[in-house]
Amino acid sequence: MLKLKICGLRRKEDIDIVNKYNIDYIGFVFAGSPRKVSYEQAKELSALLREDIIPVGVFVNEHMKLIVDLYKEGIIKIAQLHGDEDEDYIKNLKAKSLEQTGHEIPVINAIEINNANNYDNFNDKLLEWRDSVSDYFILDSGKGSGKTFDWSLLDKNSEFFKNSIFLAGGLNSENLDSAIKEFNPYAVDLSSSVETDGFKDEEKIKEIVEIVERYRN
Ligand SMILES: O=C(O)c1ccccc1N[C@@H]1O[C@H](COP(=O)(O)O)[C@@H](O)[C@H]1O
Q1: CB of 111 within 8 A of CB of 138?
Q2: Ligand 1 in contact with 31 (CB < 6 A)?
Q3: Best residue among 7, 61, 147, 201 to mutate for probing ligand 1, ranked by most atoms within 8 Å of CB
Q4: d(CA 69, CA 209)
Q5: What residue ranges do the domains of the chain occupy?
């Protein structure tokens, strides 16, 4: 069933909004960004989150200790890695979390696709990623940029999409419907388009939830 992630929550009001709707994942950004939250803010916000909503920590080349500490305290349940983290880093992160908590932290590995076609052989890359230790992948144009990338590069409706891909990058109420129909991803992930003046906007989130709801069965 299609999942929905709303990223970049940073206020109690944002948590109150997501708690009202059928939302599966939320993101706390720990990287340099106007949406950045501190450890203490995330701790406070995560404690207010409805139990069935999964908090994801979004990181760019972060020290493993911070990620493992957040996971150990239950502030995040998944790590989304948006920097240059390679297979060794991810294996190490999983090993450290296993050692300290008894569970391997699930990882969403971000693949940035820009319109200069940085992945010419996208299908070959998909095969490579399939063998990775990451649990999921997020396809994004940047880091919460609000911009779409060239969807024609993607391998439409593959099993891999259905099971492992968070589709992100400039999704909004205008293009979400066609993105879901075209790619049938595991999840859709939005941030910029559900904000007004840099803050999460309940009406915009509600509109997105209603679109996603049509594809849940
Ligand atoms: O949102 C950010 O500020 C951010 C910072 C660093 C890494 C990732 C970030 N955001 C991620 O980008 C997607 C897509 O955002 P958008 O819809 O294009 O604005 C978002 O869901 C976050 O996972």
Answers
A1: yes
A2: yes
A3: 7
A4: 32
A5: 3-213
Both tokens of 47, joined, read 């404690």
Give the number of other Cβ atoms within 10 Å of residue 152's Cβ. 8
Instruction: Calculate how far, in angstroms, residue 31's C-alpha sits from the geometric centre of ligand 1.
Output: 10
What is the sign, positive or negative, of the torsion defined by CA atoms of 201, 54, 134, 82? positive
Whole-complex ipTM: 0.97
The reply to whether CATH 3.20.20.70 applies to domain 3-213 is yes
pLDDT tens sequence across 71-120: 999 999 999 999 999 999 999 999 999 999 999 999 999 988 875 555 56
Rounded to the nearest 5 degrees, what angle is found at the Cα of 116, between the Cα atoms of 113 and 122?
50
Locate tokens 């059928």: which residue? Answer: 22
